[in-house]
Amino acid sequence: MAGKLLVVGDAAVEVEMDILSVPDPGEAEAGEDCRFLPGGAGGNAALCASCYGAEVSLCSRVGKDGNGERLRRFFAERGVGTKALLFEGALPTGMLLFLNERASSSCRTVAFRGASLRLSSSDFDAALAADCYDLLYLSSELDPALAAYAAASAEDRGVPALLDASSPVLLAALYQKGLRVRVLYTHDRVAGPFCKMAVRDAASALKCCLSLGQRLRADFYVLRMKDRGLFLYDGRTYRIVMVSDAADREPRAHFTDIEPAVLAAEFLGTGDMESACTVAAAADRLARGGDHGRIPGREAVTAYLEAHGIPFIV
Predict the structure, then answer these.
(1) Which of 167, 178, 180, 223 could form a disulfide with 217 if both were Cys (CB 3.0 to 4.6 A apart)?
(2) 4-307 has which CATH code?
């Protein structure tokens, strides 16, 4: 096992529908395909990290309904610990609707967080105290107050945290609060506008990380630079981890939790952040949409990296 990972985030049912185009108001558009998938940002991250060898537990809330029961069973069957996946009686299980529009090759998302909104600091405290975790993973859709509490509480207990700050709302709120985490992961499309700069190259990416570091302190800053790779800064040196050219990258659907989840699992397993970034970027490169059967396995990622002569830790 790579180590024990506690993932805190939403668990939800994902409905993915393929349509030709989004209808105008008052009109209807026939769907071409429809898929129901267990997920949510926290659920997806937990599943993905488990696929990469981490011993994962998921801290979240689902409704006392059929969807909640199915989610709990699905995660358990795939090796994700569910003792901290609690049932909520007041709200139904969360749901995400993804409309994949073929005419524009775009995806539109509607989110209903449902029972996940009731996840509390006491839920987190109970989950953290239940085991000896090696890393805490805070997913991007968390309430900022809960994310800040969890990061500070984990640090007090000596548990390092990886924060997925790929949400503009979460990044802005936590910057104002001031935090310390082991790993801060975000995107140039989020961090750039927040820092009021265009992130185009290594120099501007470094400037962006230094700006974030004024109040969001981290041992490692990992910045996704669109199709240009991952920018990694450890407070002393920086590098861009690149696993493919932009032209080599095929378009993907909505599943965006692969990269930070693999990053967490690989860092737990090897302790080497550059290698973890390499494997995570390759996994993201090979991802092909929201279906959990399409999470690229470690063997496929290993084969891809070896075929391209890219060094990493096995």
Answers:
(1) 180
(2) 3.40.1190.20
User: Which long-range contacts link 23-31 to residues 24+ away (Cβ below 8 Å)?
Assistant: none
What span, in angstroms and rounded, lies between the C-alpha atoms of 152 and 120?
15
Burial class (CB in 10 A: 0-12, 13-18, 19+), 6: buried
Q: How far apart are CA 286 and CA 261, in angstroms?
A: 14
Contacts for 48 with CB less than 8 Å, ≥ 6 apart: 257, 258, 261, 262, 265, 295
Chain CA centroid to CA 60, Å: 15
* pLDDT for residue 288 is more than 80: no
Compute the distance between CA of residue 133 and CA of residue 136 in angstroms, rounded to an integer: 7
Query: What interhelical angle do 273-286 and 258-270 show, nearest 10?
Result: 150
User: 31-39 and 12-19 as β-strands: parallel, antiparallel, unpaired?
Assistant: antiparallel
**Cα 159 to Cα 36: distance, rounded to the nearest angstrom:** 35
The answer to pTM > 0.90 is yes
* Per-residue pLDDT reduced to its tens digit, 107-151: 888 899 999 999 999 999 999 999 999 999 999 999 999 999 999
Look at residues 35, 43, 113 and name the one whose alpha carbon lies nearest to residue 85.
Answer: 43
Q: Do 188 and 224 contact (CB within 8 A), yes or no?
A: yes
Q: How far is CA 54 from CA 149, 248, 268, 287, 312, in A?
A: 24, 29, 7, 19, 18
Unique residue bearing structure tokens 């900022």: 144
